[in-house]
């Protein structure tokens, strides 16, 4: 449905938005472009929707070249921009009618289509109210409805849930999935919410500095990372070093790290490796109090893919992307994790913050955490959608800081540390 | 293209109908000028060789042109608002003609200005101005006002695309309107102007529009003068419209 070959775009200001970008999206697929702000997601989507030109490459959307047949492309796509594209001073119906006219539909066709769409998005009662009275979620739904009025084959969604509350976001996700499964729409969405890409997309491409770093099925990408993390809590182990050395010799264990009396094991498959691990501990008379394992999240993939390039380019790029990201209010991913100033040496603040972010992400896998014991020491997280609310890592971190591991540098020695 | 322009024009008309007060706001200034200047320069008409009996008779065409300038010189601000709200992208992603997006906006502000000019004319009538209210000449005068409105709305839209920011656009709008007003015979007859202002007024499109409106609304209409002014205004409107449409295309594509 969409084919992009070596797409390069340089803005007049000289910033390179896209660099030899290539993607291929099949029919009836939900494809997510995941990346930090300024990575080139919006630039890419604007080129695909004929809103902006490009310097090199070849772009085909729905079988038409965007350069030579922009009108044919426009007829076959719907686009929902990052900003709400519906007019606040018109009613929902007027917005839909206008959009229908602009797509050269007949009056009769517009009326039947509006009935269908308002039914589908349950806009019925609100349809004749001014859009300025709509809630954010309603406006988004109307926005998507206007983009679908001419029955497009492909739907482009640029940050569809940006600025929405958790509930509206979830309901929007359901609609997006439904559009794909029921109507067979091909959907290309951009997002910087990891769990959005994870939940919705059949395939995800991680984009940074205008390049695709990696693309594939979210599950596969996560499996590539390091398998799972199994954590065993012991009751006063006698010889930690021996135990971890023995366990490390097991074929499926990639790495081990002690944290107090808790042992983190990086294994290829968490579920199947737990029984042999426990068996081994019993055989050496170590009592396992509590077991937990977690899957890596797209977060980990993201860090692995973008981490290196960000390290090498951060000096001359002004505010770093996570700072901008964190600046985005309550939805900010890192909002609660930033160390306060008195905890960090101010001269190296950003570096340490970065390390800390990476560490805490790997240290405390947040989602899909499975628990077998009430006495869990693992941060409690019930898969809340909003990261800012769910990231309860700080209190935890502080606790074990008190227990003797004071400095940030020591923290950066934690398992699987890439610094 | 015509259909697209019509639908978009309808949209803008609907929006301004929903906020009639806002549209009337820009009327306040011309009305104030009509009242203040009308009384301030009242005895001006006693000067020898003054073309009309009372000053207000002379001033009405000038105030109509002023209405145009104040009404349409900020038309670009709402284009910037629409761009940041994302509604322009919504139009651009549809097969709608690019030309009609600018055209509908410009015609909308010009139509708004014509309505305002008619209201000003009613106020002038109440104040006792003896203008020519013959519908044919009124129509001709309104045609000039429509095209001058198109011209200034185009200028403002084109500048909006070039500047991309509201503040400089408003400053430029101000900077544009006042000198253009004073370097024309809107308020002062040509024979009372200093030589250099008279020379400047010859390259001022406003001067020609004022002349045309004055020729049409005078108790003794002068069609020869009207045609000169009308065609200059018409040409000015076409040129600015063309410029703003190409500015719009250049930015988006």
Description:
The complex is a heterodimer of chains A (419) and B (253). The longest helix of chain A is centred in the middle third of the chain and has 18 residues, at 166-183. Chain A is 39% helix and 21% strand. Chain A folds into 2 domains: 2-216, P-loop containing nucleotide triphosphate hydrolases (Rossmann fold); 226-419, Alpha-Beta Plaits (2-Layer Sandwich). Chain A has 419 residues and is an alpha/beta fold. A 6-stranded mixed beta sheet of chain A has the order 6-7-8-3-9-10, sandwiched between helices. A 5-stranded antiparallel beta sheet of chain A has the order 12-13-11-14-15, with helices on one face. Chain A is elongated. By secondary structure, chain B is mainly α. Chain B has one domain. The two termini of chain B are 18 Å apart. The mean pLDDT of chain B is 87. The A-B interface holds A 49-53, 71, 74-75, 77, 79, 81-90, 94, 98-99, 101-104, 130, 146, 150 and B 3-4, 7-8, 11, 14-15, 18-19, 84-87, 89-96, 252-253.
């Amino acid at each position: 449905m969409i084919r992009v070959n070596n797409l390069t775009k340089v803005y007049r200001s000289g910033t390179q938005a896209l660099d030899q970008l290539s993607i291929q999206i099949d029919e009836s697929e939900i494809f997510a472009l995941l990346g930090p702000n300024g990575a080139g997601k919006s630039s890419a989507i604007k080129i695909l929707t004929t809103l902006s030109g490009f310097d090199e490459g070849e772009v085909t959307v729905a079988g038409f070249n965007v350069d030579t047949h922009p009108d044919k492309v426009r007829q076959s796509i719907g686009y929902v921009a990052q900003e709400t594209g519906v007019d606040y001073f018109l009613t929902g119906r007027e917005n839909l009618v206008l959009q229908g006219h602009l797509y050269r539909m007949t009056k009769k066709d517009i009326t039947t289509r509006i009935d269908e769409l308002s039914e589908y998005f349950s806009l019925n009662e609100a349809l004749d109210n001014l859009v300025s009275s709509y809630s954010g979620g309603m406006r988004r739904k109307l926005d998507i409805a206007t983009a679908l009025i001419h029955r497009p084959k492909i739907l482009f969604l640029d940050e569809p849930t940006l600025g929405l509350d958790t509930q509206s976001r979830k309901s929007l996700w359901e609609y997006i999935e439904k559009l794909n499964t029921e109507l067979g729409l091909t959907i290309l969405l951009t997002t910087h919410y990891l769990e959005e890409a994870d939940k919705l997309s059949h395939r995800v491409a991680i984009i940074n500095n205008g390049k695709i770093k990696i693309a594939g099925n979210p599950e596969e990408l996560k499996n590539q990372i390091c398998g799972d993390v199994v954590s065993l809590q012991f009751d006063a182990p006698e010889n930690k070093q021996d135990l971890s050395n023995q366990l490390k010799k097991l074929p499926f264990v990639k790495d081990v790290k002690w944290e107090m009396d808790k042992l983190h094991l990086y294994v290829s498959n968490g579920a199947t490796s737990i029984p042999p691990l426990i068996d081994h501990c019993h055989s050496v008379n170590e009592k396992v109090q509590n077991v937990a394992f977690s899957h890596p999240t797209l977060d980990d993939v993201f860090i692995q893919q973008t981490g290196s390039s960000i390290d090498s380019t951060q000096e001359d790029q002004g505010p770093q992307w996570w700072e901008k990201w964190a600046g985005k209010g309550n939805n900010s991913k890192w909002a609660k994790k930033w160390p306060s100033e008195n905890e960090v040496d101010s001269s190296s603040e950003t570096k340490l913050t970065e390390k800390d972010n990476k560490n805490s992400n790997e240290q405390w896998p947040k989602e899909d955490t499975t628990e077998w014991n009430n006495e869990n020491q693992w941060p409690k997280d019930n898969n809340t959608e909003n990261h800012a609310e769910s990231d309860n890592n700080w209190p935890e971190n502080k606790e074990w800081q008190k227990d003797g591991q004071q400095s940030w540098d020591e923290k950066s020695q934690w398992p699987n540390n890439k610094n | 293209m015509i259909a697209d322009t019509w639908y978009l024009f309808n949209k803008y008309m609907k929006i301004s109908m929903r906020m009639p007060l806002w549209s009337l706001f820009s009327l306040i200034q011309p009305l104030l000028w009509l009242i203040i200047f009308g009384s301030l320069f009242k005895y001006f008409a006693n000067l020898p060789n003054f073309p009309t009996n009372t000053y207000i008779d002379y001033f009405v065409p000038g105030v109509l042109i002023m209405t145009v300038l104040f009404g349409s010189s900020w038309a670009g601000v709402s284009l910037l608002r629409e761009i940041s709200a994302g509604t322009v992208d919504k139009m651009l992603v549809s097969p709608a003609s690019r030309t009609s997006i600018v055209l509908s906006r410009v015609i909308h502000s010009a139509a708004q200005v014509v309505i305002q000019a008619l209201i000003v004319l009613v106020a002038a009538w109440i104040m006792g101005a003896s203008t020519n209210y013959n519908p044919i000449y009124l129509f001709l005068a309104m045609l000039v006002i429509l095209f001058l409105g198109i011209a200034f709305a185009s200028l403002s839209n084109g500048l909006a695309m070039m500047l991309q920011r509201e503040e400089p656009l408003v400053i430029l709008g101000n900077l544009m309107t006042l000198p253009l007003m004073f370097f024309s015979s809107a308020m002062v007859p040509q024979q009372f102007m200093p030589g250099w202002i008279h020379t400047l007024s010859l390259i001022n499109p406003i001067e020609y529009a004022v002349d045309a409106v004055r020729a049409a609304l005078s108790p003794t209409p002068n069609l020869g003068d009207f045609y000169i002014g009308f065609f200059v205004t018409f040409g000015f409107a076409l040129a600015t419209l063309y410029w703003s449409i190409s500015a719009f295309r250049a930015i988006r594509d």
